Amino acid sequence: MIWVSASLKKWLCILLLMAGSAIVAQQDPQYTQYMYNTLTVNPGYTGSTGGLEATLLHRSQWIGIDGAPATQAFSIHSPYSKYHENIGIGLSAVNDRIGPSNEVYIDANFSYAIPLGETDKLAFGLKAGARVLNVDWSKGRYYQSGDPLLNTNINNKIAPATGAGIYYYADKWYAGLSVPNFIRTTIYSDVKESTVTDRLHYYAIVGYVFNLGSSLKFKPAVLAKIVTGAPVIVDASANFLIQDFVTLGVAYRWDDAMSALAGVQITPNIFVAYSYDYSITELNKYNSGSHEIVVRFQLQPKTSRIKSPRFF
Question: What predicted TM-score, i.e. pTM, was given to this entire model?
Answer without folding.
Answer: 0.84
